[in-house]
Specification:
Number of strands: 3
Helix content: 55-70%
Largest sheet: 3 strands, antiparallel
Oligomer: single chain
Strand content: under 5%
Structural class: mainly alpha
Strand order of the largest sheet: 1-3-2
Distance between the termini: 99 Å
Number of helices: 15
Length: about 325
């Protein structure tokens, strides 16, 4: 390439409003290839270098990593192969455009994750700032154990251990997905503490105490949980509208599920027995779990659905 159409490192820096140090940095990492060297061994850059450098700097300003930029430029260079041999930042080739679109999409995803983490950390710091002095160390330990942003893996593991061992994989996944609340996208300080307490509850459950946390089990857990799932769906509308617990299709489905799983019929006598059995199986850990889970989502929880149905069962058997 003739020297009169190439740029020195200083000329390239001046034309793009950057520094010689920056140009040298990207050159040394292979992002900004030299067109030639002068007789004195100085770097010379082709006419496409300013556009390429502007693209590099634009992507870096958006937080795209140097390796990611290198992959985009490599695709661009591959698309330009067989042409003039010049390195351009953005060619007309579909491959280079696809590569740039892909890296932008990945950066958007990464940024969304980063922003979620920052929102959670801000809420966590507010929770600690607002804590009473005597509770500060306790709250810090709780929040630190849960992480910021937190993972739901401990809660999922808790439910995999709580559910009956003979429950089929399909229902085990369905119940776990429904029972594990997702961390709020924009949490309040109280929600950060609620999730941290939920995490602590789940991780503190030992194999010995899990048996007492389990819901009422049955000889046929698949029959029970299939029926409960249907009953919970039926009661969701009542929960959303604030309707008081009472008789209806949801309660009938709930009682029938328990009856089928027990290998008997849904009769008034069975409902009385069921009411007593459910009351005896109440456990404060599960009640606390559902209370904390309810603080994390505006949607009805499985615990809220079960509580509504049990109140309806109690009301339907009152005086019997």
């Amino acid at each position: 390439m003739p020297s009169d159409v190439t740029l020195s490192i200083g000329e390239l820096a001046a034309r793009t409003g950057t520094t010689v140090k920056t140009v040298r940095f990207y050159s040394d990492r292979g992002l900004l290839p030299e067109a030639s060297r002068s007789d004195g061994g100085h770097r010379r850059y082709g006419p496409g270098a300013p556009a390429r450098l502007r693209t590099i700097r634009a992507l870096r300003s958006l937080g795209v990593s140097v390796p990611e930029i290198a992959r985009v430029l490599a695709r661009t260079d591959d698309g330009a192969a067989g042409g003039t041999g010049e390195h351009h930042a953005g060619g007309d080739g579909g491959d280079s455009g696809d590569a740039l679109a892909a890296v932008v999409a990945r950066r958007l995803d990464d940024l969304g994750t980063e922003l979620a983490a920052l929102r959670w950390r801000e809420a966590a710091l507010r929770a600690l700032r607002d804590s009473a002095p005597e509770r500060l160390a306790e709250h810090l330990e709780l929040i630190g154990a849960a992480g910021a942003p937190p993972s739901t893996s401990a809660l999922a593991h808790y439910w995999r251990r709580v559910l009956p061992p003979r429950l089929c994989a399909r229902l085990r996944r369905a119940v776990t997905d429904a029972a594990v609340p997702r961390p709020p996208v924009d949490p309040t300080p109280d929600q950060v503490l609620a999730f941290a307490r939920l995490h602590a509850l789940a991780t503190a459950a030992t194999d010995h105490c899990l048996a007492s946390h389990r819901p009422v089990t049955a000889a046929h857990p698949d029959l029970l949980y299939d029926g409960l799932h249907e009953a919970y769906l039926l009661v969701e509308a009542a929960l959303r509208t604030g309707r008081d617990p009472g008789p209806g299709e949801a309660l009938d489905c709930y009682a029938a599920a328990h009856a089928r799983a027990a290998g008997t019929c849904d009769t008034p006598a069975f409902r009385r027995t069921l009411r007593a059995g459910l009351a005896a199986a109440d456990h404060p850990v599960m009640a606390r779990y559902w209370r904390l889970a309810g603080e994390l989502t505006p949607d009805p929880t499985l615990g809220a659905a079960d509580a509504w149905l049990r109140e309806a069962l109690t009301a339907s058997t009152a005086g019997a």
